[in-house]
Specification:
Length: about 200
């Protein structure tokens, strides 16, 4: 990634950027900011090829609508590489992901942006935690953290000093609905996408 962006969003999965930052994205685009979204864990394994294709098609439609640059890094989603749910939602990086961690570090070092947004990891999902910790460790760019939706609504706590808060609009909700089955499965209630927060976490 040689081009410098105003904002790069590190999205662990194919819907995290829009679910958690959709309203921010809409407004930044209107302001003319150069934005790139990087989806990191986008490979589902050989037994879920159709699901992976479906999710990627839905995400591409949203990215094209937003008219932002984007790319998929195609590391394997934790739900398909880990059999133990305690590992998946344990809130920490596990030894089994050591090689994965090194590969992600290499790619993160190539990012050039005025601001990098990483997930805060409030739901304890190992993919979100891994991205957060790798970004904190090696990124040269300024880093802030977005509160992961919809996990926020079941994991209240202190997450850091609020840098930006925005209420989700109908336009954001319309974007989120484009994710189809994932929207219905994960969000269930529109209010779970209602407010977005970016925090300064140290």
């Amino acid at each position: 990634m040689n081009k410098k962006y105003d904002v790069v969003v590190l999205s662990p999965h194919l819907d995290d950027a829009v679910f958690s930052l959709g309203q921010h994205l809409i407004e930044w685009i209107e302001q003319g900011k150069k934005i790139k979204i990087i989806n990191i864990f986008t490979k589902f394994g050989n037994i879920e090829i159709d699901l992976e294709k479906y999710r990627k098609e839905k995400d591409k439609k949203v990215m094209d609508y937003l008219k932002v640059k984007w790319e998929n890094w195609n590391f394997t989603d934790g739900g398909f590489r880990l059999s133990d749910k305690k590992m998946l939602f344990g809130g920490k990086i596990i030894k089994e992901d050591d090689n994965l961690k090194k590969n992600i570090e290499k790619r993160l070092k190539k990012i050039k942006a005025d601001l990098v947004l990483a997930p805060r990891g409030v739901g304890g999902h190992v993919d979100h935690i891994l991205v957060r910790e790798m970004a904190r460790k090696i990124m040269d760019s300024k880093i802030e953290y977005y509160i992961d939706l919809p996990y926020l609504w079941s994991n209240f706590g202190w997450y850091g000093k609020i840098k930006s808060f925005k209420l989700g609009s109908r336009r954001k909700n319309k974007l989120a609905r484009e994710y189809g089955k994932e929207y219905e499965k994960v969000v269930r209630r529109w209010w779970k996408l209602f407010g977005e927060m970016i925090v300064d976490y140290s």
